[in-house]
Give the backbone structure.
Amino acid sequence: MQTDNLNITILGVGAIGGVIGAYLIKAGYRVTLLDVNEDHVRKMNEDGLTIKTVDDTFTVQATAYTVDGFKKKNEKLDIVLLAVKAQHTEAAVKSISDLLAEDGFIVSFQNGLNEEIIAEEVGRERTVGCFVNLFADYLEPGVISYGGVGSLYIGEVDGEDSERVNQLVRALQNWGEAKKTNNIFGYLWSKLAYGTILTATATSNITIADFIASEKYRPLVMALGKEVLQVADKKGIKPEFFDDWEPTYVFPELQEDKLNEQFEILENRLRGYTKTRTGIWRDLAVRKRKTEVPQQLNPIIAEGEKQGFSMTLLKTLLELITEIEDGKREMSEDNLQVLIDKI
């Protein structure tokens, strides 16, 4: 079994980090798992890391530490897959930056534009971009639910080819159809547009598939997507197609007939997933904790306003999420109507 002798560390063993880490361990790679949840770390060491999928459940033996516990080993880190929530990016990178090997690098397995935050801490030459779209949830210590396979692309932030990207893609193909790209920001901005649409669903209890299928909410879907994609366009970024989401049908020219046909395909994909709502919804409705929405939306809003756009929908969406977090607003489809009224 060839593993390219890679030494991989995953920082943040939640939904994404847990799934990716388990498949790499299963394939024979040397993987160290780091997480702040001491119960999670203990359970993984004692009983392994369990992944529950639609068709199967498997457990891998894991080597896990808290960051403080790992630092006592005084070992260097070669490849760090960062999978913490966006709001914890800066603190997480600072916690391990002094452990990075001279040629070590960090890959952002996150939502948002965290590559820029990572680069500010460790340098662009030690930062690699990643687009990952999979549906999973942390259930309890040592257990992750993996409810829907999506896409994964790895790319240098400067768009160049590199052997380190090739090696990482080979490793990640043990998870699924991982690919390399020279346009990582095209994927990230495309996901920002799609992710903003999904974030809107989290203000209510409607499922993602029902929202996408609804003719009532279709104008909101198109308007949210456009508000993000127009910013990417001004930055000279070409958004990419992924997992039945086609951004070019929304912007620069709305192609409503094609978009409606594409959304039927997307709806069918979503109805095949066991995960029916977003991680943001789960944070609000189940875990009762702050979301990563501000860290996802604020950079888009700031960039859009700098370009002269009002960014009304994104600012309203952020206000709605914040009010739900603070207990000042109930999760309801009334919130979606608030957004529609802003179009």
Strands lie at 7-11, 30-34, 49-52, 57-60, 64-65, 77-82, 100-108, 127-140, 143-156, 178-180. The mean pLDDT is 94.
